[in-house]
């Protein structure tokens, strides 16, 4: 069996490493934490005791006094510079422009300028979702709007963040669901419940797990020892000590046969067989044979693994057959094994020679890109500027589809990468805008 993976880079030089998020992964050396990029290079050297993944262009970061165990946390930009000083006991990631912060053991909310918009007076607080946030005050949970007013009074035992129009709530030791209007939507009859995801919610009744829809009707009766949420229309389920996968009707898509399993991420799922971890595809076939002592989900094209004394990230390299690259139309560079590629558009050119000028679209915000023309890098790790940069292009008549692919390196302050192109063939001038992020490339074809 072919390996179907390659080591992207090793991380043995670090004591610990997290998964990738927004193009960066947290790494730890001793008590200090920093970030590496998707090439394994240090992006921000380990220097913070407190750190979190980037969200909305900034990340929680700060320091701990290990004698008193007091901590101070603020927010850094992607260059590692504080944009909100480390002044809070604890900070959450920004979401919808607001972050939870703890002051004197109570939680409140700040905006992107660091201004406290909702005073710190809650025992617990969640980030905003769709303009609403669960909070705990005097031992009871309710829901705030961004103005700081309760739209659901604090009288519940526990609340999860809003998802698909519902709050999963604990009421009198049972779990049910509250609508955004504050009314009971699904009666609290479950021993445990989770938030809705893709129209279904995982619930437990009498020690068994199943799924309900948003009317509270069982779509899949509770009969499993454990289940995880659906992704790619498949959910991992455990029964009689083995894990398999069911479809949205509750039928087995992949028979229970694994010692452990996770959900599908980027069309691959972790499975454990005879003490080793590997990965399967959505049809149940082995994508990467079990051989790792530890393995984690694929995120942004990379998966964290440990194999013996070797630690690092691997990249999936699928067989180049038509079935597996159907969502990578006409793409030729190695990036087709790393990121999805958009359908793209076709540009008509008169003659075989033309000029392309590239520049940052709308706002200069530090975007760094690479651009691949017919399998070769036209530009590599280029910081986009306001002034157009010109390149001479020659169409190759021996290639069926001449193409230009945009590959994002750094999303700058305002994701995604947005590149404006001026295409001049001497007869007409055309303008095109391409958009790419760390999960997906954009592409255009020339005829």
Q: How far apart, in Å, are the first and last alpha carbons?
A: 40 Å
Report mean pLDDT, rounded to a whole number. 90
Assess the beta-strand content as a share of residues: over 45%
CATH class of the domain at 334-446: Mainly Beta
Summary of the model, kept short:
The protein is mainly beta and 447 residues long.
Secondary structure topology:
Blueprint: E1 5-10, E2 16-21, E3 24-29, E4 32-37, E5 42-48, E6 50-51, E7 59-65, E8 70-76, E9 82-88, E10 90-91, E11 98-103, E12 106-111, E13 116-122, E14 124-125, E15 132-137, E16 140-145, E17 150-156, E18 158-159, E19 166-171, E20 174-179, E21 184-190, E22 192-193, E23 201-205, E24 208-212, E25 218-224, E26 226-227, E27 235-239, E28 242-246, E29 252-258, E30 260-265, E31 268-273, E32 276-281, E33 286-292, E34 294-295, E35 303-307, E36 310-316, E37 340-341, E38 345-347, E39 353-360, E40 368-373, E41 376-383, E42 389-394, E43 402-410, E44 417-424, E45 429-436, E46 440-446
Describe this structure in words.
The protein is an all-beta fold and 447 residues long. It has a domain at 334-446: Immunoglobulin-like, CATH 2.60.40. Strands 37, 38, 40, 41, 43 and 46 form a 6-stranded mixed sheet that branches. Strands 1-36-35-34 form a 4-stranded antiparallel sheet, with no helix packed on it. The two termini are 40 Å apart.
């Amino acid at each position: 069996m072919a390996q179907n993976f390659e080591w992207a880079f090793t991380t043995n030089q670090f004591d610990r490493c997290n998964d990738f998020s927004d193009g960066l992964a947290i790494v730890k050396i001793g008590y200090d934490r920093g970030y590496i990029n998707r090439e394994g290079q240090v992006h921000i050297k380990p220097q913070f005791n407190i750190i979190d993944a980037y969200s909305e262009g900034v990340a929680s970061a700060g320091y701990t006094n290990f004698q008193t165990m007091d901590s101070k946390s603020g927010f850094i930009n992607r260059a590692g510079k504080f944009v909100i000083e480390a002044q809070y006991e604890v900070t959450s990631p920004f979401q919808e422009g607001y972050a939870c912060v703890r002051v004197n053991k109570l939680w409140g909310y700040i905006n992107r300028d660091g201004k406290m918009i909702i005073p710190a007076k809650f025992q617990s607080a969640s980030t905003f979702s769709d303009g609403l946030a669960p909070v705990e005050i005097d031992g009871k949970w309710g829901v705030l709007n961004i103005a700081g007013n309760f739209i659901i009074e604090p009288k519940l035992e526990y609340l999860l963040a809003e998802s698909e129009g519902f709050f999963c709530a604990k009421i009198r030791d049972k779990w049910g669901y509250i609508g955004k209007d504050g009314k009971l939507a699904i009666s609290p009859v479950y021993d445990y419940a989770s938030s809705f995801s893709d129209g279904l919610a995982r619930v437990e009744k009498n020690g068994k797990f199943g799924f309900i829809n948003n009317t509270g009707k069982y779509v899949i009766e509770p009969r499993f020892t454990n289940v995880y949420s659906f992704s790619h229309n498949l959910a991992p389920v455990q029964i009689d000590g083995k894990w398999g996968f069911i479809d949205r009707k509750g039928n087995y898509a992949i028979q229970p046969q694994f010692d452990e399993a996770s959900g599908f991420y980027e069309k691959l799922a972790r499975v454990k067989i005879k003490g080793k971890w590997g990965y399967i595809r959505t049809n149940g076939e082995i994508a990467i044979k079990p051989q790792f002592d530890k393995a984690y989900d694929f995120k942004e094209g990379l998966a964290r693994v440990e194999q013996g004394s070797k630690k690092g990230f691997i990249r999936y390299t699928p067989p180049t057959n038509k079935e597996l690259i159907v969502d990578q139309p006409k793409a030729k560079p190695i990036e087709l094994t790393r990121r999805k590629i958009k359908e793209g558009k076709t540009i008509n050119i008169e003659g075989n020679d033309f000029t392309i000028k590239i520049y940052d679209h709308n706002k200069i915000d530090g975007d760094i890109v690479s651009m691949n023309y017919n399998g070769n890098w036209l530009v590599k790790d280029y910081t986009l500027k306001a002034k157009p940069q010109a390149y001479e292009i020659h169409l190759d008549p021996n290639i069926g589809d001449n193409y230009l692919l945009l590959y994002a390196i750094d999303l700058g302050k305002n994701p995604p990468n947005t590149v404006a192109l001026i295409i001049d063939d001497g007869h007409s001038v055309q303008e095109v805008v391409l958009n790419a992020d760390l999960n997906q490339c954009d592409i255009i074809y020339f005829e």
